[in-house]
Amino acid sequence: MTRRGWWLAAVPLAVGVAAAIVLAIARPGVALRLTTPVATLALLAGLAVAVVVLLTTAWRSRSRRRAEEVAAATAAGEERGREQEHDSHRRFVARLDHELKNPVTAIRAALASIVPAGEDQRRAIGTVDAQSARIAGLVGDLRKVGELERAEIERAPVDLGQVAADAVEDVVQAAAANGVTRRVTLALPTAPWPLPHVTGDVDLLHLALTNVVGNAVKYSPAESVVEVRGSEQDGWVQIEVADTGLGVPAGELGSVFDELARSPRTRHLPGSGIGLSLVRVVVERHGGSVAIRSVEGEGTAVAIRLPATGPRRLGGRGAGGQGAT
After folding, report:
1. What is the CATH number of domain 40-151?
2. What is 153-310's CATH topology?
3. In this predicted model, what pLDDT tens digit does every residue of 74-105 receive, in sequence order?
């Protein structure tokens, strides 16, 4: 029983005792005939009320503990259920990846051996080959997301500014190879001091930033500029990627980081819907967060925040508003 319960029980008992004493001494002339039984009754009444309060308080305390135990057990059960569901999903995707790999490889090999009889057949073969590769890549990406949620990751000092610079360069080069020209600017602080380091897996962080910058380039109109900005605040390092592309409708913002999340407006563009889900998993595994701000028809800004854990950069490639085309 709690201390409050004991005090509640003591109050009526004290009242009963006080009443008995008062009644016993209030009228000395009739004490033997009248006050003794009344005092006794008052004392017994106080005791009875005290017992009721004690039992009620004990019952409430027990009920509260039971409710807390049930809530804890329910939460634990839900957590186990989520873990089991996640494990089942991961095993299913791994099996699917394994089962599809050989057939898709065989299909693509067979397509490569076909000599097209004309332009129409050439286009048809190209379409089948591209869709086969897309299916294999989609399942592989799903498997990668599932593995990242559980796998051990490297913990080493990482210069996030340099990783951002490398990601920008890789995305711009890949876009140019596909005939897409976009200007991507990179602005990292140099004064009074550069960005501090973070701790994590440099390859995974590069993958996350490449996905975000790649999305910005893919969904931006020609001749537009994608801005990549670095900053530090309150012990957090932030890389924000902003574009003036399609934007995300308000009703879809809550699901952009889900697996296979793609807007109907972007179905005509290449992509699997896995990229931002992968970004979320990578960033959260590093103790950080990822947020999105977007207005449909105006553009989108995605911000990755990671805890700063090391010395500030001393300069290098990508510092201070470097642009890439």
Report:
1. 1.10.287.130
2. Heat Shock Protein 90 (3.30.565)
3. 777 776 766 666 566 566 656 666 566 677 77
